[in-house]
Protein: carbonic anhydrase
Organism: Thermobifida fusca TM51
Amino acid sequence: MSGVFDDVLAANEDYVRTFTLAGLQPVAARGLALVTCMDSRIEPLEMLGLKPGDAKILRNAGARVTDDTLRTLVLAVYLLGVNRVIVLPHTGCKMASVSGDEEVHDTIAARYGVDTRSLEFHTDSDQIGALHRDVERIRHHPLLPPDLPVMGAIYDVDTGRVTPVDM
Ligand SMILES: [Zn+2]
């Protein structure tokens, strides 16, 4: 493994020298939780005018509201100052451009010989439909406040625009 992480560890040495975030509180200063995709084209703070300390960022493949997302939101709401939630998938997401989980399983099996069928990837070719259902999962979760504001929106990776689709 020697060398594989040298670039990021060296960069961190520079970061530490000019570190300015000491003393930030763990409570989300602007009360926001953002559920978005792991896609490396997404810069979640800058796109919404946020800075470190402002928001809880939850990321996974496809920006899906999974059981783990809900678990994290419950903690974020009751312990970490979150009082509003945005669910934000994006244009060009692989998780919404395949026909279903089978296609992903088949692709990985063909390329690497690995059988991933024990995993649920939560792909959905109906991205907007999935977003509406995910937003409803949060709105109707029995442990989350019924009046918690939840917005579903799409992030355009070509323009940077966030377009609300469910609010
Ligand atoms: Zn994605």
The first strand starts at residue 32 and ends at 37.
